[in-house]
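tool_call predict_complex ligand=iron/sulfur cluster
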Amino acid sequence: MAVETAAKEKKQKKERVRMPEQAPKVRARNFIEVPTGYTPEMAKEEASRCLQCKNPGCVDGCPVGIDIPGFIKLILEGNFTQSIRHIWKQNSLPAVCGRVCPQESQCEGKCILAKKGEPVAIGNLERFAADWERANGTGALPPTAPATGKRIAVVGAGPAGLTVAGDLIQKGHDVSVFEAFHKPGGVLLYGIPEFRLPKDIVAQEVNFLERLGVKVECNAVVGRTVSLDELFEEGYQAIFLGLGAGLPKFMNIPGENLVGVLSANEYLTRANLMKAYLFPKVDTPIPRGKDVVVLGGGNVAMDSARTALRLGADRVRLVYRRSRDEMPARAAEAHHAEEEGIEFFLLTNPTRYIGNEKGRLTGMECIKMELGEPDASGRRRPVPVKGSEIELPCDLCIVAVGTGANPLLTSSTPDLKINKWGYIEADPKTGKTLKKGVWAGGDIVTGSATVILAMGAGRNAANSIHDYLMRGW
Amino acid sequence: MFKIVKREEMSQGTVVLNEIAAPLIAKKAKPGQFVILKANETGERIPLTMAYTDAQKGIIAVIYQVVGKSTALFKTLKVGEGYQDAIGPLGKATHIEKLGKVVCVGGGTGVAVLHPITRGMKEAGNHVTAVIGARTKDLLILEDFMRAASHELHVCTDDGSYGRHGFVTHALKDILDKEKINLVVAIGPVPMMKFVSKLTKEYNVPTMVSLNPIMVDGTGMCGGCRVSVGGKTKFACVDGPEFDGHQVDFDELMLRLQAYCEDEKACHNEFCRMEEMGRK
Ligand SMILES: Cc1cc2nc3c(=O)[nH]c(=O)nc-3n(C[C@H](O)[C@H](O)[C@H](O)COP(=O)(O)OP(=O)(O)OC[C@H]3O[C@@H](n4cnc5c(N)ncnc54)[C@H](O)[C@@H]3O)c2cc1C
Ligand code: SF4
Ligand code: FES
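tool_result ok
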């Protein structure tokens, strides 16, 4: 017993193995991924910090319940091939999740080591296992069940839709994914930048599904090109809607339509999907601001700010109306952004945009805020401080204050019930909507959330769809 | 790939017609709706309102003016070649109904978009007068089509080289002075739509315009296409492209259309240089 405790203490004292990254000054001017990954030695060293708890907190913290100590043990033993297969049982996109999950509020936040020191770097290890497989794996496909002859249409090729497609194809069904954009991936492709999630990884995940037999139809705007009822007429027996929450919100303050004010969706879509950072080698332009202001405090704001820096901005300021503690961004992203030189203007709210006679943005007026009483979300509500207006000169402003439900499909499908914000009503356990044969999950049900929650919703819906197809409604 | 099955040049090669095989879009498209075309892997997504469609043959037709890098690239595409991506039909369809007397005013390539609406208005039982204009005779397009689609056609050129000497607004004013008009549809360059709307406002005649702001996705996801209509922000790709001309802030639209002028020029010059090199 005493020996065991001593061993535990020794483990706890071991320092967390940092993942090497590009130096802040260097990376702030390129689009290459920031952290460069663990070597096998580093991964084993970090894996050795795990206490292999009997009742692991980390697993409770994982929205899809990955057997974390299990896969870490396999890494420690050097059995990387089995380690990734162990993760795959619960998570089909580990290379993505290892990079973008908010680990600090999920698995790592619940890790026993976090109580006294630093938690096991679970995200880094997950990423390592997935990257190792991509570089060295056999590429062997998992077995699929015998064909059932059932046809399923998945609308939207984001993490929710891709998860449904992957699960159902393995259960022997015939799956087609319909995507409005000209390339699949959803936010993974058009939203999250290359320097955080290389697009090769997204392409490879989709390619993996295609090799399993999933058909991906791009340029298909469901609700316009084809309706849900037409899909049923074409012989699809079940439909999953993973439409995301793609409608950009604006501030609705004067001057918002000046040239130089863009939604983060537009800015990031130009940069990521259209690869406008390579302009003029590609044809889509993107405004290259010298003095940039980003509104918001989430991942989207961090991604926009860091993209602006990489596109040559001299100065990037992030204006957020609450305090640092309330920023919804992943801790790692806020940290990286600060290291790269992004200035945070906290407890500050924009009141209007200022432009010149050519209709171009030249600055904005903001007001200082202070924290008042807690609001419905439990966060203290920021209230303006009278007479504290300041003017920030800028030539580009990116609005990253949230997104909502795009009504394109729901408005053309009246029998699909939506709530007052426009999100689709669906059973939280199964994803069943009120339209027969139609499921929904991910951001279009919950409002913008996380990749892993969208995947979790996808998995639940896939199980429910499978049930329905084999047994009935 | 979305193959080009027919191609024609007009207006001395500054305007190009493409008939494109896109059966799914053709089946659904209605007058007034647009498609987004992307030529190749590195291409830009360009919105173009459809000039006509044929559901049976599975084709859609677009007519575009060569104005920058992307349309110059489109122009190089031959019959048998095609677009990597075509997305649509997007936007709201024109609301066509029997109102009585309708005047359809078109300028430049706007005439291509105006044509199916004109025909639709005539088929719906309206008396349709069409007014089309161009800078000069050689730039005029679809005259015969417009003649067939309307009851009466007036042609104007800015330089007087053909038809009536003057702007479409002059011809329109004469019509408005003469009789009670129930609706004016104006589609063309922004200044033209602005002045038509200004004129019809004086006569209190409802006016519909079709807007062409810069777009990315065309499905309401980026907000790049926002326009001010009656003091409210609208997304042209989903709320439009057609709006009440009396409510549109055309000056703002004009400024927003210039957003990428400098970049566009640089990109286009580079493209022309490469083309030139290719030829040598
Ligand atoms: C910039 C940015 C950074 C983010 N960073 C993180 C992060 O670090 N960690 C994290 O966990 N989460 C992050 N998120 C949130 C996360 O990406 C989303 O919660 C997740 O992608 C939602 O998945 P989804 O499948 O529901 O929808 P999406 O990923 O939005 O995919 C929906 C897809 O459906 C398509 N579609 C929509 N309507 C139609 C239609 N009518 N017909 C056909 N196709 C349609 C869309 O084009 C899109 O491809 C970020 C989001 C953004 C925007
Ligand atoms: S809680 Fe931490 S130490 Fe315990 S099993 Fe999970 S990762 Fe290992
Ligand atoms: S083009 Fe993106 S919202 Fe209209």
